[in-house]
Amino acid sequence: MSFKHFSSGISSFHLTSDRALDSAIGMIDGLHKEIIRHLQGDLPLTATPFAAVARKIGIDEGELLKRIRELKEQGVLRRFGATLRHWQAGLKANAMVAWRVPKDQVEEVGPLMASVREVSHCYERKPNSKWKYNLFTMVHGKSKQHCREVVGRISEMTGMNDYILLFTRKEFKKTSPEYF
Hints:
Blueprint: E1 5-7, E2 14-15, H1 18-24, H2 30-39, H3 49-57, H4 61-73, E3 77-79, E4 93-99, H5 106-114, E5 119-124, E6 135-141, H6 144-158, E7 163-167
Antiparallel strand pairs: 1-5, 2-3, 4-6, 4-7, 5-6
Helix pairs in contact: 3-4
């Protein structure tokens, strides 16, 4: 099993990795792209949000749902979910944690870190001569101390103790990417 993104967070419409999207581009037609364009933002707050989206696109709800299933089966669409605004929910602190994980343990440790409910993102990246860390988690908590406690639990659970916490000082942008 090979993976680079371990998902455990709450987020909205998600496409698969850029590589998977690039390989799927040839398989998706103009209508699929139009559907993605309408789904990658907020869904209408109605009792029948997919019917509302279908009307905007000019197709019926059944066709929209069929096309969404196709995107899921092709591996282009990963999932739908709610977007939590951490600050408004009382989670006033967050930190990116850079971990140094032995290469032969990444496949085991990554999913463990991703399973922690306070972790919204978990990625592997290639280290270089100036930066030794290769696994990154985004930890959210009620305070910096709470984040430190979560990181302590993760360290204890995984046996990884070479890490650095990078607390967010200011958020300049936080949106989901728009693909089409």
